[in-house]
Design brief:
With 313 residues, this protein is an alpha/beta fold. It is built from 14 helices and eight strands. It has a single domain, classed as Rossmann fold (3-Layer(aba) Sandwich).
């Protein structure tokens, strides 16, 4: 009996040492937003108050543009995902992009609520703050769902809609990024509050690219830093538990010029969903980019933007 107890004690001790070693190896606590601003919020970034939340945004291009272009990023991303598009569009158009509540440098909202209704009200409030009454809106992934939800809720304010590998239907993914799987697993959620295993973010980003070789160290550093922005990991866990369902009928009610862009190698929201959007939105145009993944505007800005510019003309 004593031998058995001794063996059990060794096993418990070995397990505790392994857990301790894992925590030490992957220890990555939250980073205060002030420490991240110097690297990721240089001009033209600015922070404006929207209902008590300091929103990280960039507003570029000619202010006289009667139809500004609003760009909305996806889950765990930031306004930086649109850099390639914005750098060209701002030469002739006013371009507004921002970090959604719960992500990027904006961080969590006071209510800890990241439902679609909250996001729609947020976009409307931000446009009101900027004095923008009518606009073109584009969104990727979660941002695509925000974009079409805004177009549905505020048809008098949205002139055109651009969906990029958009969410909106119940999804059967071929592959889910490791970071999302960890954040969505109840047993691991609390553990991940202060740890971030080396390589997890890189594997997650490479997972959503059609060509993983395009993922640069700078891009991994960006995604890692915004993941560690104070409060963002808790907000991601909350967002993944607030998935909106039963809104598919709203998509069929959209009556505005719509461009649908999709990566042919998207394994998170597979290309079959692009065709669903094209079928449900009367008169929409679908452009497929066969080599690209879930974030085609980030993976190949030039190719995807060419289709956008043709649509806007």
């Amino acid at each position: 009996m004593k031998l058995i107890l001794r063996i059990l004690a060794y096993i418990v001790l070995a397990f505790a040492l392994l857990v301790g070693a894992f925590i030490a190896w992957s220890w990555a606590p939250d980073i205060p937003v002030e420490q991240l601003k110097a690297r990721w919020a240089a001009p033209p970034s600015q922070f404006i108050d929207v209902d008590g939340l300091q929103v990280h945004m960039r507003d570029e291009g000619p202010r006289a543009d009667p139809l500004p272009i609003v760009l909305v990023h996806g889950t765990a991303a930031s306004l930086h995902t649109w850099e390639g598009w914005a750098s060209e569009l701002k030469k002739t158009r006013r371009v507004i992009r921002f970090d959604l509540p719960g992500f990027g440098l904006t961080g969590p909202n006071a209510a800890n609520d990241y439902s679609m209704d909250v996001y729609v009200r947020f976009v409307a409030a931000l446009m009101d703050k900027l004095g923008v009454q009518r606009f073109v809106i584009a969104g990727n992934s979660l941002g695509g769902e925000v974009a079409w939800a805004v177009a549905h809720a505020l048809p008098q304010r949205v002139d055109r809609l651009i969906l990029v590998d958009s969410a909106g239907y119940r999804i059967e993914s071929v592959s889910i990024p490791l970071g999302f799987r960890v954040a969505g697993t109840p047993g691991l959620r609390s553990l991940m509050a202060n740890v971030l295993p080396p390589g997890l973010i890189e594997k997650s980003v490479r997972n959503v690219y059609g060509d993983p070789s395009r993922v640069t160290p700078e891009l991994v550093a960006l995604y890692t830093d915004i993941a560690r922005r104070e409060g963002n990991r808790a907000a991601l866990r909350k967002r993944l538990s607030q998935r909106d369902t039963g809104r598919e009928q709203d998509i069929k009610q959209l009556k505005l010029p719509t461009l649908i862009l999709w990566g042919g190698q998207d394994r998170l929201i597979p290309p079959a969903y692009a065709q669903r959007f094209a079928t449900d939105i009367a008169g929409s145009k679908l452009v497929m980019f066969e080599p690209l993944g879930h974030v085609p505007q980030e993976e190949d800005p030039a190719a995807t933007l060419a289709a956008v510019q043709a649509f806007l003309r």
